[in-house]
Amino acid sequence: MVFVKRVLINAAVCVLLLSATTPAPAADIPHSRGQLVYVPAYSHVFTGPRANPYNLAITLAVRNTDPDTSISIRAVDYHDTNGRLVRRYSPAAFSLAPLASHYVHLEEKDTSGGFAPKFLVRWDSAQPVTAPIIEAVMIGATSGQGISFTSPGLVIQER
């Protein structure tokens, strides 16, 4: 009898563990017809006791995660630390094919955005799709030293 209880308890634990690690069914994945996404970035970080700036290259990546449907990128705008528009990277809308990616790259020497620049990315689709992954990747390398990190986008408006 004790053996049967142990087998049942072990089976119940296995079922609970498996259900916790099983991916969500497709119906549970949120879909959207468009968003405005705020993506924080860093053109430099401060190092040492004198807070010397360490310049970073910034790459904004936009990845269409939908395997079947294109999305339209309506705007990729770069704003400075004070929120002012510095540059528009997409003067016209363009299509991003299913599972395709697009990037914008700023060199380490480009500090036009100040310490805490940000991107605003507006995208939309004619039908509901899985939302794209939009993030900034910052990388710096000087004298054999290197730093890299990412900054995920935050949806601030839903279409």
Can you put this structure into words, describing what you see?
The chain is mainly beta. The protein has one domain: Hypothetical Protein Tm1070, Chain: A (Sandwich). The chain has one helix spanning 2-21; strands at residues 31-40, 44-47, 52-55, 57-63, 71-79, 85-88, 94-96, 101-106, 118-130, 133-142, 145-152, 154-158. Strands 1, 5, 6, 7, 9 and 12 form a six-stranded antiparallel beta sheet that branches. Strands 8-4-10-11 form a four-stranded antiparallel beta sheet, with no helix packed on it. A hairpin with a 5-residue loop joins β5 and β6. The longest helix is centred in the first third of the chain and has 20 residues, at 2-21. The termini are far apart. The model is unreliable at 11-18 (pLDDT under 50).
* Rg calculated over all Cα atoms: 22 Å
Structural class: mainly beta
Outline type: elongated
Helix-residue proportion: 10-25%
Q: SSE order, as H and E?
A: HEEEEEEEEEEEE
State the CATH architecture.
Sandwich
- The stretches of 5 or more residues where confidence is low (pLDDT under 50) are 11-18
Query: How many domains make up the 3D coordinates?
Result: 1
What is the averaged pLDDT score?
88
The CATH first-level class comes to Mainly Beta
What is the CATH homologous superfamily assignment? TM1070-like
**Range of strand content:** over 45%
Instruction: Count the DSSP helices.
Output: 1
N- and C-termini, Cα separation: 59 Å
| Total beta strands | 12
* Major sheet characteristics: 6 strands, antiparallel
The CATH topology assignment is Hypothetical Protein Tm1070, Chain: A
